[in-house]
Amino acid sequence: MKHLINLATVLLVFLTVSSCKTDTKKEQETKEQHTDQISKKDCKDVHWSHHKGEDGPENWKNLCDGFSDCGENAQSPINIITSNVSKVDTLIAAKFSYGTSGVDIINNEHTVQFNISGEHNVNLNGTDYKLLQFHYHTLSEHTIDGNYYPIEVHFVHKNSDTNFAVLGVLFEEGESNALFEKYLDKFPTSKGSFKSEDIIDVLSLFPENKSYYNYKGSLTTPPCSEVVNWYVLKTPLTASKEQIEVFSKIMNNNYRPIQALNSREVQVYNH
Ligand SMILES: [Zn+2]
Questions:
Q1: What are the structural domains, with CATH classification, of the chain?
Q2: Which chain residues have CB less than 5 Å from ligand 1, an ion?
Q3: 32-51 pLDDT, tens per residue?
Q4: On the chain, which terminus has fewer CB atoms closer than 10 Å, C or N?
Q5: Centroid of ligand 1 to alpha carbon of 68 (angstroms)
Q6: What is the pTM assigned to this prediction?
Q7: What amino acid positions are annotated as catalytic residues?
């Protein structure tokens, strides 16, 4: 039985992490020694990274007690093997009750994130979830039959502290992306934020066909809590070659390596 997830710990990953990259190396070393001597329990000031090294994905589980889930058996992302997914009659189409949101973009040094204002709900197979934010990864985190896509966006929804739903949408190279056209040159390239009076229609950010792969997994960043019902949409969005290049530079490979599926099953719903 999993230990109860502390809300503050879960939210850590969604909100701006204040500790990263601002420290000098010396301060960081002092902090790590201090952490080792006193206790490994407090993850608040622990620095982690998407890149290989002491604070990289392979070591997340060892950085502090609160990140131990990163070494568990139901982690995300995964490689979705299309010939192995189960088609089940019990899955139904997502029912969206989305509205419009203001524009509030932050770069927290792990991702570029749009914080959402207004009420946006989705019913997924009988459970209601509220949209909190969406953010990006380059390359994609999920792979399809072993293939990476250049970008993946995650729409993060919450029902309770132990029940999140993330809708993942992959991007492929193609027509220019309308949201990027408007905001790509406004995205903070380092820690920072951009706000405007604009209004965005959130549902317009999704592909028309909302067929999905569904499996149970985790947050893809520390604390890697296994509280996420994943819905990876089958239909990708597009962005132009230039947009992908500019965006990938800002994001700097912020994707977690593929995790083992273990005993889990991936199910599919086709519209
Ligand atoms: Zn994500």
A1: 7-71 (no CATH), 79-269 (3.10.200.10)
A2: 154
A3: 445 454 456 689 889 999 99
A4: N
A5: 19
A6: 0.87
A7: 110
